[in-house]
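Input (structure):
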């Protein structure tokens, strides 16, 4: 999926805006894209000097002393740039690069950490830039530019964003005709990887590992001769496989000079199916968040939650002093004396009526960090303990302060191993989290696709965002719902794992409320191809899971208008 031009960043989450929105809107008219750079022509060179920061900051100038070099993390070699935004400084690091007039160049760099931007000015034609949200692993940014008839130098730059975490950059390339200024030597095509082995299997996935290849900047993974994924590390998990089936896998190494020969093949065999993720959730389901606090909405006991809700997410679990671990504390005083025994009995009654009740982790104020094997184990163990104590059917991931895809995936798989195939696993990312499959939240959803029930993205408290057609859409319209859902539907999630999350009333969110009729039109557009706005999906998705709302309490405060209208519509989908 390629992102180009005119992206407007959102106001994130249910809480107040965290960014200088006006400045951000003005800054992000982008001409670049995320992709993998193609091989250079034989005469091309990397015109950037000290491209891997092996000589410290030589040839680079960083604003407000924001840049330094570090030995970890690095993408290649032994050093990388670390630049930290502070105050009114966005940690911009620049280099003037000699170029040849009237020539085309490919500008690329590997980035990690906070929001990172890459661009070129002074091209003599159209200046370019590209960006990526925060990333827990190395990601390549790349774009191209053409120099003007008299242009002999350009300024290339990286920078972060105000108030955001430090970013890392490495292996900067300005590939094209030799500008005469000198630069790093061109790479050669890497050798084929060795040591390919199967490190794990499930009923729908095979995990692979292999040895590092010198000079490689990434690896392609092939299944039965067809490329299925590309990674930057020396491991990968291939998902979406059929149970009890054998597959042949090979790996190649790549860099800007080209792709190696394929490795030797290994065979991976998936295990027998133990059932799909999600337990006995209806084909089309409505999810509602139940508030374990009083914020002015109707105070409810679980027993009072409208019967149209199929999945009830109890908001929220609480962080503990143990890294990754969570607990749950019923707000009995705030809920009019609601006791733990009554709460447990209401969970059992809802389950007897065919409903699922999950505990939600995160929310506006919930900061739970799962960033290493220990915290992943603590998360899985503590959530499973809550399931046993209260009878929860599973967990909802609503972490609005970022997550680590590697270790959250590990934690959720560990939880699934304890809970079994009946586990209900839901997620509620913000719109920015699901703009690209490379984003950490999206990666997590894909990593656990075989045990995932539904992703109910929050289509509210958001600025304008890109749809899957590359156009910008504003919240509050059918097009915003359908064009953004399309990214998930075409980005690797099953239609049954996609739901539309909206506020139940104008009081339920700071912005983004739409009437139930708009929600229903979006559902019809995606499932039947009717009721669409200007955006029309290229195909229909009749298995779309349904819709979600924040919250059952705000819905009750509005006379259950949302669930009375959206619930029957969801349950009547094809």
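Output (sequence):
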């Amino acid at each position: 999926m390629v992102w180009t031009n005119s992206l407007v960043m959102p106001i994130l989450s249910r809480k107040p805006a965290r960014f200088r929105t006006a400045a951000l809107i003005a800054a992000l008219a982008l001409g670049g894209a995320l992709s993998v750079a193609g091989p250079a022509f034989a005469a091309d060179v990397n015109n950037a000097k000290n491209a891997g920061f092996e000589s410290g900051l030589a040839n680079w100038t960083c604003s407000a002393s924001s840049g330094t070099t570090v030995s970890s993390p690095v993408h290649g070699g032994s050093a990388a740039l670390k630049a930290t935004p502070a105050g009114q400084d966005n940690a911009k690091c620049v280099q003037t690069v000699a170029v040849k007039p009237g020539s085309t160049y490919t500008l690329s760099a590997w980035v990690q950490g906070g929001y990172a931007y890459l661009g070129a000015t002074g091209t003599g034609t159209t200046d370019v830039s590209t960006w990526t949200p925060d990333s827990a692993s190395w990601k390549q940014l790349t774009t191209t530019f053409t120099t003007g008839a008299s242009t002999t130098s350009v300024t290339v730059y990286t920078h972060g964003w105000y108030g955001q975490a430090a970013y890392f950059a490495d292996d900067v390339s300005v590939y094209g005709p030799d500008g005469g200024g000198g630069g790093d030597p061109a790479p050669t095509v890497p050798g084929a990887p060795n040591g390919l082995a199967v490190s794990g299997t499930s009923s729908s996935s095979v995990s692979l590992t292999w040895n590092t290849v010198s000079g490689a900047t990434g690896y392609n993974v092939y299944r039965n001769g067809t490329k299925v994924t590309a990674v930057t590390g020396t491991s990968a998990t291939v998902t979406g496989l059929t149970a009890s089936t054998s597959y042949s896998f090979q790996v190649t190494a790549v860099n800007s000079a080209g792709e190696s020969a394929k490795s030797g093949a290994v065979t991976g065999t998936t295990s027998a199916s133990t059932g799909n993720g999600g337990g006995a959730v209806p084909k089309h389901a409505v999810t509602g968040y139940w508030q374990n606090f009083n914020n002015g909405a109707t105070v409810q006991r679980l027993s009072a939650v409208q019967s149209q809700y199929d999945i009830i997410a109890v908001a929220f679990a609480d962080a503990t002093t143990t890294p990754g671990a969570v607990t749950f504390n019923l707000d009995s005083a705030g809920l009019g004396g609601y006791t733990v025994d009554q709460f447990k009995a209401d969970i059992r009654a809802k389950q007897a009526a065919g409903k699922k009740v999950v505990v939600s982790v995160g929310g506006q104020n919930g900061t739970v960090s799962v960033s290493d094997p220990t915290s992943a184990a603590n998360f899985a163990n503590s959530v499973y303990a809550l399931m046993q104590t209260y009878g929860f059917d599973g967990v909802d991931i609503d972490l609005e302060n970022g997550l680590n895809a590697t270790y959250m995936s590990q934690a959720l798989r560990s939880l699934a191993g304890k809970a079994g195939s009946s586990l209900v696993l839901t997620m509620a990312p913000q719109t920015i989290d699901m703009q690209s499959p490379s984003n950490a939240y999206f990666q997590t959803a894909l990593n656990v696709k075989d045990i995932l029930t539904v992703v109910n993205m929050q289509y509210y408290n958001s600025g304008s965002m890109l749809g899957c057609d590359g156009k910008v859409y504003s919240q509050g319209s059918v097009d915003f719902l359908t064009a953004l859902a399309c990214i998930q539907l075409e980005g690797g999630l099953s239609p049954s794992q996609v739901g539309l999350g909206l506020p139940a009333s104008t009081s339920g969110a700071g912005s983004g409320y739409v009437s139930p009729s708009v929600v229903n039109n979006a559902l019809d557009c995606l499932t039947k191809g009717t009721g669409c706005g200007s955006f029309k999906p290229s195909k229909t998705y009749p298995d779309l899971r349904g819709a979600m709302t924040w919250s059952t309490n705000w819905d009750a405060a509005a006379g259950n208008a949302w669930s009375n209208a959206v619930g029957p519509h969801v349950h009547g989908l094809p």
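Notes: Confidence is low (pLDDT under 50) at residues 1-42, 274-279. The longest strand covers residues 135-146.
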